[in-house]
Amino acid sequence: MEQKNCKNCEIEFVITDLDQEFYKKIDVPVPKLCPDCRYQRRLAIRNESSLYKRKCDLCGKDVVAIYSADKPFKQFCSACFFGDKWSGKDHGKDFDFNRSFLEQFMELQKNVPKLNTGSINNENSEYTNFCGDCKNCYMTIASEKAEDCYYSKLCQTNKDCCDCDYLWDSALCYDCVNIHNCYNCVACIQSQNSSDCMFSYDIRSCRNCLFCYNLSNKEYYIFNKKYSQDEYAAYKKALGANTYSGYQNAFKQLHRIFVNDSIHKSFDIVSCENSTGDNLKNCKNATHCFDMQDTEDCAYCAEGDAKDCYDCNNIYYKPELCYEIISALQLYNCKFSFYSHYCTNISYCDACYYSTDLFGCVGLQHAKFCILNKQYSEEEYHKLVPKIIEHIKATGEYGENFPISASPFAYNETIASEWFPMTREQALEKGYKWMEKDQKEYVKQNTEIADDINDVPDSVTKEILSCRICDKNYKLINQEVIFYKRQQLPIPRECPSCRHTKRMLFKNPRKLWEVDCSKCKAKISTTYLIERKQIIYCEKCYLDTII
Q1: DSSP letters along 457-512, please?
Q2: Domain presence at residue 394
């Protein structure tokens, strides 16, 4: 075990013996930054939700893009990027041993066209980002194998869901966070294997439950009390969740349940062995990991499934032996790379696909043995890469990911601003980019939306609405209104961004604090914010107590 001081925040952190073994296995030096600062650095490369309309720089088609028009490089639509009218190798260059690697890489980044979004292999899902194998999705982010889903984030293998975050294997769900294998649920939090439930927290294998918490295997319960089927139906009808006013009142009850009434297990780990973190399922030897499933021998990872990986985020289709990776599908033995899919043996790469043995490359597809996008023979490649690594070790660059200052995005465009918020002044002081506030004047909403969804005409999709929180304009799509009417849910009065922010109030930080169990007073680790003063139990007390 080794004690180190973070070169960024200066706090002390530990390199464990297991960490040392991993770094030795992949032949990298121990990190200079603590886990939190490494995590923040990765997130600052990922723009999830700041989307722009601009034209493809090859075919001229209007597209949705994660790169604003003022970015210093071209961007192509998916058809052009993966087409045969250009090649990333046209921008190949020799490595200059008299210059830093980062300087040369950033020059290459500016010259090579970008894919307009991080999505790949989707059908009828143009308005998505970082989605793979999705169908008929709209404004869905960081999701795989979702179908007919709208305004959702990390929506994995779901169908017919809207306004949900961190949702797995579910259908017909709305306004939910952290749920697994649920059906026809509304405003349910941290729940699994349940159906036809509303405004509930921490329920498992339940049906027809309303305002419930810490329940399992129950049906027709309201506020954790049993009712007859007819009594339940009458109460649910009187609730008026089909009206905006009724829904808002019910949501306030849910928030009260979450903060004041319910018991919280210190962290949510299901079917795991020797694992720490939160929201883990079917994991083994996962250390300080969050929102991971089917993961083994990993540390400091979040959002995905992986094997033998460290410091990775948003990684799916079981990447293996990877380090400092973000936004990737099915990688093997890859390091310090982002937006790259289906690759093997790549390092310091950006947006490379179906490739192997690349170093410092950008935008290559079906490529092999390239350095800074220049083609080499296999023998030349394996001779030159070790020399380059020795050079960038001497400059102090090797073993570290790209600095935040090198991100193509402004800090407040990226997901880093959500998990590690900073003011404009703080970001600029550190040398990070900042996107100034849009000076556009928003159109005032002229139409009053009916309280009851049954009184809302289909023509509402033609109206320009104004968010009641931030005043930004937004519109409704036909599929969305059809969903609300079918599920008897009101038209939202907040823009998608503010709705997501509201849901994230139920999402814990990805940090662990030491607290006392509220019942037995044993020392436990938890992700729940201490200042909320919620009831937090160790796993034993939780299992002994819940109904």
Answers
A1: -GGGGGSPEE-TTT--EE---HHHHHHHHHHT-PPPSS-HHHHHHHHGGGSPPS--
A2: no
Strand partners, 191: 179
What distance, in Å, lies between the first and last C-alpha atoms of the chain?
42
Contact 123, 111 (CB under 8 A): no
Would you say residue 443 has pLDDT above 90? no
- Whether the CB-CB separation of 190 and 200 falls below 8 Å is answered with no
Boundary of a domain, candidates 265, 289, 319: 265
User: Does 361 map to a domain?
Assistant: no
User: Which residues, including other chains, have CB under 8 Å from residue 18's CB and lie 6 or more apart?
Assistant: 287, 299
- Pair 457, 539 in one domain: no
Instruction: Look at residue 293 and tell me if it is in a domain.
Output: no
CA 201 – CA 534 distance, rounded (Å) = 14
Q: No. of H helices and E strands in the chain? A: 12, 38
| Nearby residues of 442 by Cβ (< 8 Å), 6 or more positions away | 466, 471, 472, 473
Local confidence band at 330 (pLDDT 50, 70, 90 cut-offs): very high
The structural domain count of the chain equals: 3
Give the integer Cα–Cα distance in Å for 15 and 3.
Answer: 6
Give the integer Cα–Cα distance in Å for 257 and 72: 49
Q: Considering only CA atoms, which of 435, 444, 367, 441 is closest in space to residue 407?
A: 435
* Structure tokens given for 318: 């079981």
Distances (CA, A) of 446 to 329, 440, 534: 45, 18, 42
- In tens, the pLDDT along 487-528 reads 999 999 999 999 999 999 999 999 999 999 999 999 999 999
Domain membership of residue 38 (yes or no) is no
The pLDDT-based confidence of 547 (bands split at 50, 70, 90) is low
Q: What pLDDT is recorded for position 118?
A: 92
Query: Which residue(s) pair with 344 in the sheet?
Result: 332, 356
Query: What pLDDT score does 363 carry?
Result: 97
Helix axes 101-111, 378-394, angle to 10 degrees: 120
> What would the two tokens of residue 166 be?
């961190």
Asked which of 230, 265, 300 is the last residue of a domain, the reply is 265
Q: Which of 167, 199, 168, 194 is nearest to 183 (CA)?
A: 194
Q: Which residue has the tokens 């410091």?
A: 311
For the chain, give the mean pLDDT.
95
3-state secondary structure 369-429: EEECCEECCHHHHHHHHHHHHHHHHHCCCCCCCCCHHHCCCCHHHCCHHHHCCCCHHHHHH
Q: How many CB atoms lie within 10 A of CB 284?
A: 16
Residues 292, 280 contacting (CB under 8 angstroms): yes
The DSSP secondary structure of 236-259, one letter per residue, reads HHHHTTTBHHHHHHHHHHHHHIII
Where do we find the tokens 């949702």? Answer: 167
Q: Do 534 and 461 have their domain in common?
A: no
Please state, in angstroms and rounded to a whole number, the distance separating the CA atoms of residues 476 and 177. 22
Identify whether residues 473 and 541 lie together within a single domain.
no
**Domain range for residue 541?**
513-545
Q: What is the CATH number of the domain that holds 155?
A: 2.160.10
Do residue 166 and residue 241 come from a single domain? yes
d(CA 323, CA 21): 13
